[in-house]
Amino acid sequence: MSNSNEFEPKIIAFVCNWCTYAGADLTGTSRLKYATNVKIVRFPCTGRIDFLLLLKSFAQGADGVIVSGCHPNDCHYTSGNFHARRRWIAFRTVLDLMGVDIRRIQYSWVSAAEGSKWADLVNNTVADIRALGPYTEYQKVADYLEKEGFDEEA
Amino acid sequence: MKIGYYPGCSLTGSSREYNESVVALAKVLEIELVEIKDWNCCGATAAHVMNEELSLSLPARIMAIAEEQGLSEVVVPCAACYNRLKMTQHDLEDDAKRTRVVEVLKMPYQGSLKIINVLQMLEAYGSENIKARVTHPFAHKVACYYGCLLVRPHSILQFDRVEDPQSMDSLIRVIGGNSLDWAFKTECCGAGFSVSRTDLVAKLSGNILKDASDRGAEALIVACPMCQSNLDMRRGAINKTLAQPIDIPVIYITQAIGMALGVGALELGLKRHFVNVEL
Amino acid sequence: MSKIGVFICHCGENISATVDVERVAREIGGMEGVAHAIDYKYMCSDPGQTFIKEAVKKYGLDGVVVGACSPRMHEPTFRRACAEAGLNPYLCEMANLREHCSWVHEKSEETTEKAIDLVKMLVEKVKKDKPLESIKVPVTKRALVIGGGIAGIQASLDIANTGHKVILIERDPSIGGHMSQLSETFPTLDCSQCILTPRMVEVAQHPNIKLYTYAELESLEGFIGNFKARIRLKAKSVNYSTCTGCGACIQKCPVKKIPSEFNAGLGTRTAIYVPFPQAVPNKPVIDRVNCNYYKRGACKICEKTCQVGSIEWDKEDEIITEEVGAVVLATGFDVKGADFFPEYGYGKFKDVLTGLQFERLASASGPTFGEIRRPSDGAIPKKIVFIACAGSRDPAKGIPYCSKICCMYTAKHAMLYQHKVHGGESTVFYMDIRAGGKNYEEFVRRAIEEDTVNYVRGRVARVYEKNGKLIVKGVDTLLGGQQVEIEADMVVLATAGVANCGSEQLAQKLHVSYDPYHFFAEAHPKLKPVETNTAGIFLAGACQAPKDIPETVGMASGAAVKVAALFSNDELVREPVVAVVNRLAPPLYSTCVGCFMCETACPYNAIEHEEIKGRDGSLIRTIARVNEGLCQGCGTCVAFCRSKSIDIQGYTNEQVYAEVMSLLND
Amino acid sequence: MKKLRERAAALLDEGAVSLVIGYEEGTKRPRPLFCRNSENAGKLIFDSRCFHNLAVYVTKKELVGKERFAVTAPISTLRSILQLYVENQLSEEKLLVLTVDLSGELVEFVTFEEISAYVAQFEMKRGEREQEMLTKIEGMTREERWKFWMGEMSHCFKCYACRSACPLCYCTKCVVEVNRPQWINPWPSPISNMEWHVNRAMHMVGRCTACGACGDACPVGIPIDLITRKMMEDLAPEFGFVPGQPAKQGNALSSWKLDDREQFIR
Questions:
Q1: Which of residues 100-159 of D touch C (CB under 8 A)?
Q2: pLDDT for residue C354 is more than 90
Q3: Assigned CATH for C4-132
Q4: Which option is the CATH number for B2-118: 3.20.20.80, 3.20.20.150, 3.90.370.10, 1.20.1050.140?
Q5: Which residue in B164, B166, B180, B200 has the most chain C C-beta atoms within 10 A of its own C-beta, making it the best mutation to test that interface?
Q6: Binding-site residues on chain A for chain C (CB distance < 8 A)
């Protein structure tokens, strides 16, 4: 799939149970292939996804994050994704102000019928993150005191 | 009462009587009309189908000058001009368009101007005040004809009931007239074709006149120079399309009110019509 | 330390073909807290499940992870297996090795490693899992049906026939709704009243149905299985227990010129009235707005004529409270009046009617006893024009949707006209003919071919009156946009079906959502057409969107079955995936500070205010509490809570945090 | 000021309130005064130097006790009080709010409605410092911003003075004290510090009234108030909220619009 010396980004996907998780299931049942870099964490609804989790992911060495749920108006809980959307707008604003690389968080709507969209989303995101390279900028600083070896330039 | 005034081309040409009657009426009602300096054509009726930028810039210039002149409110008797100015104001709420137009004009444009037609001016003046000045009650059965440009598109002009306008009718009642309930109030007179397809004009205007006279109208009351000239000047052609000729005059609301207020026929330009006004 | 059992499934070849399942089992087996890890060809098979059950007992497992297909597929299976082995089912989780791994990746090192990660993730989650008990909510087996039209009638009868009690409330003095106003019904042309009135009577006599006419819902509190409905019984001014319904009072009432609602304003009624002859209950009410006595304090003629002294002048509105377990909304629809159409004369032309008015003209019980006559002069119209889509499918009018029933009833109207007025000419202006339905298209064809109704495809620009005729100016788009002008004697507008007045307020009382046109919103456009987003409240008929009688009846029965299903258990059992607000020992009681941002965020109004009182009964604090009956477990509140005081079972902060960390910490 | 003192004294004497929270002269700048008897009322002052946000005290039960109390509030404090009211932390029965308007007149608010009406006439403006700093930050590239903040964050030693100074940080248990899971590492380090401040910013969305108390309180002078302020400035209008004018129901994050921005969603 990829030659060994190439950088393999570590990506976590936070998805809702009703649309995107089911969509990813469909990707499987339709045997569509995508990169192994992405691992899915299942939530009841995008409204449940805590912004701190995204933050922690980077601190713990993720190079990218996918957040995906139901399209507007399709939310199993009617408005969870609308709440989430707002939260993300705000979250992006803070992160950007703090200088965090928000290109590393890919938001998306993937419905239970969009198996192929999920595959594309994963592959595109992996490609994007690979292009951006490892998120050392963040991890270096994160390593300071969290783990040994503080690097001055951070 | 002091108010800006944009006569527009027709009122200085084919429809001088409209201009005269507006001015004369304003004098009697002690409304001071401040004509916009160095005004230009509003671009009706052709510009807006040929070239958007031009069709916006022409009216914009007029309004820009008016703003420069420190006017806040401008009365536009010609329905076509009124329509173009209002439409332009609406279109120029779009920033991109406004910036472009301002570049073209090389002068500031706020879009703060209040554009009103003659009917709105008279309504603002107050029907009671008009009633108070009536000396020769206008005791006639008439059909008020609004045409297309005065009330459409309603979403932008926001003037009167679009399918069944009432403002002119109520003014007629104020001066003691009897305004008919008829069907062709807002039908098209064919103005757009007044030069190119006179046959169509004759047909369309014919329908209007016929319905009015069938219902016993002694005159048609209008507030648009296009409609007036079509219904009046083209009468010969119109009558050819009808079983029997119709000779009811087509007079401006300002003339009608003027008559009721005892303004002379000459001042009101009543002698300029093709179909004699004998009321 | 936890003792977790891990079971990796080959799914035949489906997983093992690309994932080295043995290695997965091996490596996971080495994980801290994993007591037992095996792989097997078919975990979901009986032997497979037996492995799990035995392991649970043998190793005394306190958690199980099955690495197999999607949990959406087999989670229930394996949880059941664990339960049978005596392990709390909510301590069993699934790692999705098939849909999310083996099927979407080639056979490779990475694939196997991903599989391992996925299982690890769930192992970490299971470590944080808590045993959960499914939630049981008691059910009050009594239903409230709002609206006594055909939808409400059908729903009430169906529920009542399952042996459950029903409370049916109707705003008007009689049940029957719009259907009772119709003349004949498409596509069979059988008389509406003939098929409806028996049902109305059945409702009145059914031992399980308690009928409140002239009544409206005041408020609804509670949640699925446990609603409290406050109902306003409007004062009828007539004592129904003594009234015999003889009708003498109606004969004598001096106020006779009130436009009759039942006849859509074409006929008149008296101030004390029964809306129509077949009304149920067939007893009068006094319309206090128009009654001389209530207006001027004098008259009381009805009281003098009443043999049994049933008139109650000083009767007040009464508020009663009923406990119900489910609610069926069947409030129906309304039609736009002709005055909505300036181009058709703002309703000022007497002979421009709405479809509903035409129904009354065509109805044998109508003001003209079924003869088609002009309201203006009583003449029989020689030429009639029907305008379909009057308002409907017209964004400019604010009604972009199709009212669905008009195509059919317009065809019916034209047909009825042709049958009743021989030699009459009828024209229908239409946009498209939408005759989807059993025998519908055939019906329209019949109107066109056998009854020679003239169908013109095009819109009508305006209608105006000229020497006693209605001039209809339209266009025929099939004749290249040629203008058509018809001198008609009568014009019938198939005016748009719109939400019933007050539906918005009602929706707010019930906390059900509604669409931009104030029709009530179903929970899912395809799969939950009769449910609302509020558990325990169901929809029947045209209150959800315009629909015809067969559809309405079908939907009503659907709603009834949902209610019956709900009532089939004494308790509601629900997945314990709900939010909970933490509780601590005094003096903290809870870390919740009661800012109630969760309340504003919750889509289900599941957040309640809980008052914490001291021994002396003084209020110490007010904190949030989740109503388990209402909470659907989306967890939006959890992500909102600043102090992390609210958490959601099955997806707790600890669990998801552990999952994420497991993927990264290495 | 004289009127204020008299009124405060009167309120205390007639027992209308048990406590008046206000300002008195301090060594360098005015400091809060907790006035429980009319003698002390004489110490009360109220002028442009009194910007310390007193709202932080009104939610401290141990301080204000059970009886009704009063607070003399400049604009910033009034805004915070409104927000606290929206969040069900205050009741009109228990709190009497006093202020001195621009004309030097003593104003007494009985209802929160009155306060919001009063506050509405003052719009939020950036001070010189904020203007300067923010233009600087807004001018930076992302990398520069990252370096800038990491530099600042490396000074933070998690004293949580920002938290104690903020009237809206009234939680009895703060997320940083939550240890199951340990969302934010308790020790100071640039990332965990940033996590804390991002977390603060997120918790303040649609709530922050930009009083600047957090910034003032920071002993090592990290301009953290700018984070919440910038958030407020950027988001409040987009979400249809007026900065400093709390919405009656919910807040920017607990509500939503169908047409909220989503170009960033793929």
A1: none
A2: yes
A3: 3.40.50
A4: 1.20.1050.140
A5: B164
A6: 1, 8, 10, 12, 17, 21-22, 24-29, 31-34, 36, 39-45, 47-51, 53, 56-57, 60-62, 76-80, 83-84, 87, 119
Q: Which residues of B touch C465 (CB under 8 A)?
A: 183
Q: Which residues of C touch D253 (CB under 8 A)?
A: 597, 601, 640
Query: How does the average pLDDT of chain C come out, rounded?
Result: 94
Q: What is residue A148's predicted lDDT score, i.e. its pLDDT?
A: 43
Residue of B236, B226, B225 lying closest to B202 (CA atoms): B236
The answer to ipTM > 0.90 is no
- Inter-chain residue contact C462 with B161, CB threshold 8 Å: no
pLDDT tens-digit series, residues D17-32: 999 999 999 998 999 9
Q: Does C59 touch chain B (CB under 8 A)?
A: no
Which residues of chain A have a CB within 8 Å of the CB of C639? 47-51, 83-84, 87
pLDDT confidence of residue A144: 59
Residue numbers in D near A154 (CB within 8 A): 150, 190
Residue type, B173: R
- Find the mean pLDDT for residues C420-431: 96
Both tokens of residue C529? 């057409």
Q: What is the CATH number of domain C235-316?
A: 3.30.70
> B97 by DSSP, 3-state: which?
helix
CB atoms within 10 A of CB C637: 30
Question: Does D250 reach chain C within 8 Å, measured CB to CB?
Answer: yes
Calculate how close chain C gets to D181, using CA atoms only, in Å: 5
Amino acid at A52: L
C533: confidence class by pLDDT, cuts 50, 70, 90: confident
Instruction: Report whether B101 contacts B56 (CB < 8 A).
Output: yes
Which percentage of chain B shows pLDDT scores above 70? 100
**Segment C47-75 mean pLDDT:** 95
Confidence band, pLDDT 50/70/90 cuts, at residue A107: very high
pLDDT score at B194: 81
Residue reference for tokens 């495809």: C457
pLDDT, position C665: 61
| pLDDT tens digits along D20-72 | 999 999 998 999 999 999 999 999 999 989 988 999 999 998 898 889 999 99
**CATH for A11-146?**
3.40.50
Q: Is the pLDDT at A150 greater than 50, yes or no?
A: no
**Looking at the complex, does the CB of residue D254 fall below 8 Å from at least one CB of chain C?**
yes
Chain C partners within 8 Å of B215 (Cβ): 466
Verify A-B touch: 3 or more CB pairs within 8 A. Answer: no
How far CA D97 is from CA of C22, C295, D59, D78, D80, in Å, comes to 72, 51, 14, 8, 12
Look up residue C23 and give its DSSP letter. Answer: H
Count the residues in chain A.
154
Q: Which chains touch A (3 or more CB pairs under 8 A)?
A: C, D
Tell me the CATH class for C333-498.
alpha beta
Residue with tokens 């099927």: C103
C342·B183 Cβ contact <8 A: no
With cut-offs at 50, 70 and 90, classify the pLDDT of residue B95.
Answer: confident
The chain D residue lying nearest C600, using CA atoms, is D250
Q: Does the pLDDT of residue C433 top 80, yes or no? A: yes
Tokens of D76: 């910033």
**Tokens 């005015």 — which residue?**
D30
Phi, psi torsion values for C332, nearest 5 degrees: 70, -160
pLDDT of residue B4: 95
List all residues of chain C from 616 to 645 with a beta carbon under 8 Å from chain A.
632-636, 638-640
Q: How far apart are the first and last CA of chain B?
A: 31
Q: Look at residue C222 and give its three-state secondary structure.
A: strand
Give the architecture (CATH level 2) of B136-261.
3-Layer(aba) Sandwich (3.40)
